[in-house]
Amino acid sequence: IDLGIKKLLTLSDGETYENNKYILKYEKRIKRMQRELSRKEKRSNNYYKCKKKLAILYSKLKNARKYYLHEITKKITDEYDVITCEGLKPKNMIMKKEFSKIISDASFAEIIRQLAYKSKYKQKLFYQIDAYHPSSQECSVCGNVDKTYKDLNKRVYKCHSCNHTQDRDLNASINIMFEGLKLYIKELSI
Q1: Which of 34, 39, 119, 167 has the most other CB atoms within 10 Å of its CB?
Q2: Which residues are catalytic?
Q3: What pLDDT digit, counting tens, does each position of 115-128 carry?
């Protein structure tokens, strides 16, 4: 599984799950409600009513995101026996200002947490590869590593060595699958 911003999840068999970007759907209403709350006189009845409406909006946002993630992770853990995911560090990724809102909305840590506990519960195997493995820079056919694909704007991976062309996220998910299989084989040999 390759986690991403444009496509939330890309599986090695080509299946993708869209990033619904729930924060963008609720952001306008939350901002409006926060503005209304700031205009209310503190500790008045209208202030508490507005505060309650704002809390309801936040809980709707949280529940919509949570439901979608549970739906995805349930489907993946039901369908696959060996699940491999990136070992991302979302806290470090959020430090970058330009993507912080979108990354926190995507809830990468929650996806990984749900996959881990659901696969353990269903007696499936779950692996996380090293966070620094160059999965999106490596060709899934010949293994050539091209550092120019660190740029997130390049959405198609084209290998300069074997001329293999593929979607960047699909290429990364295939590389993650191979790394997971290496971990699986290593575990079997022990």
Answers
A1: 119
A2: 2, 86, 169
A3: 999 999 999 999 99
